[in-house]
Every structure is written in C-alpha cells, then in structure tokens.
Write a structure and sequence with these properties.
single chain; 267 residues; mainly alpha
Length: 267
C-alpha cells in the first residue's frame, strides 16, 4: 500500500469503514444490481427510459442529463483534488464565473426544449440524449466548483484564498476528460454498465456528503477549529452518513408517493 494511502487510512479510517459498510449493505440487499442502483438514485432522478442510455438489457440509473451532471461533478472534484485546489476559497475571475453560468444556462435551454416537446409545444430542435449528456456535464462542472468553494469557505483554515478554477486551461482539461467519459456512456457496452453505475452512485453520495459536511461544520460552528485535516475525520464521517441517508430517504419518499398517489415513476 502506498505510503500516502496508508496514512490516509490511518487518519480517516472511519470514512473507509462507512464506505465499506455501504458497499456491503448494497451487495447484500435483495434484488439485482440494476434494480438496486436505480432504487438508490430514484430520489434524485425520474429515470425516464427515453432519456436514458441503454446497456444491453439495462438502463443507466440516471438519465442522460443527470449522467452528465454527476459525471462532470466527480471529474471536476477529482481534478481539483489532484491539483491540490479542492480547498481554495478565492473568488474566481469574472470570465470563469460567466463561463460556469453559461454552462448552466445552456443546460436549462436544452431542458426547456425537451419540456416543450413533452407538452406538445413548439420546440426549436429535436432533443437528443447526447445533448443531455453534454449540457449536463457542463452543469456538473459548475456544481462541483460551487460545492468546492462552499466547502473551502467553511473550512477556510485548511485552505487558502487562491482560486480553484482560474483559467480556460482548466476548462480545457475538464472537457478533455469528457471525451473518454462520453465514449464509455455512448458505447452501450455491457461491461461498462456496472462500473459506470457504481461511478454515478459514488458521485451522488460524494455530492450529498459534501453538502452535508458544509451544513455540519457551520451548524456546530466548527469552522474556526478545523485547523488540520485530521480534524475533518469525525465531521466527514457524520456527513457521509447524512449524505447516504438523504439519498435513501429521497428514494424511499419518492417511491412511497408514486405508489400512494399513483404517480408514474418517470415524471
């Protein structure tokens, strides 16, 4: 085991225990992998079949747009972590902020175009899952940048007042990563289905956990006390549990509403 990984396990051992417990609980839960993955993520996505990518006999647990969003989010978080920028809380340049906002607006335009088609209204172009994936990925980048900034601002003593995404070169690297990601999603290869679904579930869990961590840190006024990474051990573990509980709670609530009110599961 590399020294850095061994040190990480030693300091943040509870995080690894929670991850292993979550994976074990998923594996032991009744049902097949496809059924369980769709159930876990159902609270975050309607999983409309016509909006989803097909792998053999299975649909991805997220539709095309959410596959893009959570793919872009995790890719961006990994990029920031690898570059040592995850805990930078400086405000990005205006051009970067405008670009991030543009990513979100473009996805909104594509989303409304799809909605107009569903409502039988005029729409400027035919919706495509490839466009949902592309525009979702851009929004995922924006989501991760905002999430990283919120986290860094909450644990400011662990970071620095520098900028995480500072130039278009950063966007270039992120969009370069989109190419192999999109190739896997569009391949429809059976062997891709399980690792890609696991990737999406992990991305959703990390996203929810980071949001929960910000709330935990601020709610218990821990921001000034977090002066070294080891102090994130317990609040990070609590946030991971809360994030998983939120995912499962949303899924359970949505399934209950659909069965109780007779609402189609794809709405």
């Amino acid at each position: 085991m590399p020294q850095s990984l061994a040190r990480s396990v030693r300091i943040f051992w509870l995080w690894y225990v929670i991850l292993a417990a979550g994976m074990l609980a998923f594996a032991l839960a009744p049902g097949g992998f496809a059924e369980k993955s769709r159930t876990v993520l159902h609270g975050l996505c309607a999983q409309t079949p016509t909006h989803s990518f097909v792998f053999g006999d299975h649909l991805l647990p997220f539709d095309g747009r959410m596959t893009g969003i959570y793919g872009g989010s995790l890719v961006t978080l990994v990029y920031l972590l690898a570059r040592g920028r995850l805990l930078r809380w400086g405000n990005p340049p205006l051009r970067v902020s405008v670009t991030l906002a543009t990513f979100v607006v473009v996805m909104a335009i594509d989303g409304f175009n799809s909605l107009f088609l569903d409502l039988g209204l005029w729409h400027p172009y035919e919706p495509r899952n490839e466009l949902r994936l592309l525009t979702g990925f851009g929004t995922g980048i924006a989501l991760a940048v905002v999430l990283a900034w919120l986290l860094a601002s909450s644990v400011y003593r662990l970071g620095s007042q520098e900028v995480g995404i500072s130039s278009f070169r950063d966007f270039g690297w992120l969009w370069l990563a989109f190419v192999p990601y999109a190739a896997l999603v569009l391949s429809g290869a059976r062997w891709v289905y399980m690792p890609l679904s696991a990737f999406l579930m992990l991305s959703a869990w990390i996203t929810m956990a980071l949001l929960a961590l910000v709330v935990v840190v601020l709610a218990f006024r821990m921001d000034a006390r977090l002066d070294r990474p080891a102090r994130l051990h317990l609040p990070g573990a609590v946030a991971a549990i809360i994030g998983l509980a939120l995912m499962l709670g949303l899924a359970t609530g949505r399934i209950w509403l659909e069965s109780t009110l007779g609402i189609p599961s794809t709405l």
